[in-house]
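Team,

Forwarding the record for the chain on the shared tracking sheet. I've put the sequence and predicted structure together so nobody has to dig through attachments.
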Amino acid sequence: MYDFLVVGAGFAGSVLAERLADAGKKVLIVDKRNHIGGNAYDFYNEHGILVHKYGPHIFHTNSEKVFHYLSRFTEWRQYEHRVLASVDGQLLPMPINATTINKFFGVNLNHDQVESFLAQRRNSFDRITNSQEVILAKVGTELYEKFFRGYTKKQWDLYPEQLDASVCARIPIRTNADDRYFTDIYQVMPAQGYTKMFERMLNHPNISVLLQTDYKKIQEEVRFNELIYTGPIDEYFDYVRGPLPYRSLRFDFETHEVSTYQPVATINYPNSYDFTRVTEFKYLTGQTHARTTIVKEFPTANGDPYYPIPTPENAEAYERYKAEIGKYDAVHFAGRLGTYRYYNMDQVVAQSLTLFNNLMSR
């Protein structure tokens, strides 16, 4: 007899399982895959290089609470992520900063001049309604066309004007020369990898783990009081309100006989090739190895759901499913897929900690 059946062993499910188990609850956590960790799962490939199976996962947060919670299960390696964009034969810092602007436009502006330079190029809108307008209002047409339009179309199969403003609002524009991709207080990577962190998180006498298992095939056989579901919410309800759109990814891994393949961890390709970006894992992990492994990411409409597609129409479709939730007192939804939100890892952890507190306060 379990107090909770948790579906999905990624960040949302694992955090909730650990918290509930620590509170004395008996928990069964199940996952369709043959491993824990969800999309953050990492492993050593045949060359002995630590790679992320489902694309690069870079941890960053401003939440002291989230950072200290995860610190119970891992030591950290300090890591500041850097990205370049391949544009017109140049590799330029991304997010756009003063260096990007100087090199792209062939000017030599100091930091104080960058703001006025951009102000002359910005488009003005009475009200921002989509991601195209977000970028045009920040940097104007030239930078929008070269850095954002093509990349967004590849990533989402939608142009920025078709996407909710929140998508591109996530991307900062800097007038200084800070070339870090993130500016969060905590920018770290698990010292021994994500999988080791999840193993420690789920190593609790009150937690049972069942892999390669579809929960629907066992829910009639397993006795439990409440269900926590972190998979796609439309799948849980058997698509009664229609399927929700998701974006997937295909990954091509390559190992090269060199110690370093590219000058930074990630290079974006907004206007060329079918892939969006190339990431070299050794930058992320700090591993020393004579060879190096990279991954190319190809967005696709088919495959495992990775990203809810943030459009106003899809938000309305999710609301129809959200209305179904109220009919179930003992079913709780969490995570990026369970709540149809484009969350970062730390946001998923924070959401799960909040849900745990709500469950305990009843």
